[in-house]
């Protein structure tokens, strides 16, 4: 029997020049996505797999939330073997929307 291989499509990432501030704010307005961004902000790049986040949603909903964060230019993902790992696109996002991420991460 042949070994099983993953046929998962590579994640699609937004070009930040195409993201509007309204799209960024809408992505950050959801409490689950905000929690994901905050946890990523406190983690080293590429150190967090999707399943490592403690959020109150199932696997399908979590995939939807990560897709929304990618579409808003906040998160980059890549596959490492069977795991999909993440990084916050902090520098790129800050260049596009100066100060916005800092405000969100401050949590006031």
UniProtKB/TrEMBL annotation:
The protein's name in its UniProt record: ArsR family transcriptional regulator
GO molecular function: DNA binding; DNA-binding transcription factor activity
Annotated HTH arsR-type domain residues: 13-108
InterPro entries noted in UniProt: ArsR-like_HTH, HTH_ArsR_DNA-bd_dom, HTH_MetalResp_TranReg, WH-like_DNA-bd_sf, WH_DNA-bd_sf
Keywords: DNA-binding, Transcription, Transcription regulation
Origin species: Streptomyces spectabilis
Lineage: Bacteria, Bacillati, Actinomycetota, Actinomycetes, Kitasatosporales
């Amino acid at each position: 029997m042949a070994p099983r291989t993953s046929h998962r499509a590579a994640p699609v990432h937004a070009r930040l020049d195409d993201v509007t501030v309204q799209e960024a704010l809408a992505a950050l307005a959801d409490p689950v996505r905000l929690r994901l961004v905050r946890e990523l902000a406190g983690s080293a790049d590429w150190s967090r797999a999707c399943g490592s986040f403690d959020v109150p949603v199932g696997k399908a909903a979590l995939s939807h939330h990560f897709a929304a964060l990618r579409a808003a230019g906040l998160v980059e993902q890549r596959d490492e073997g069977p795991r999909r790992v993440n990084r916050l696109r902090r520098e790129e996002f800050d260049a596009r929307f100066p100060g916005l991420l800092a405000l969100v991460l401050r949590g006031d």
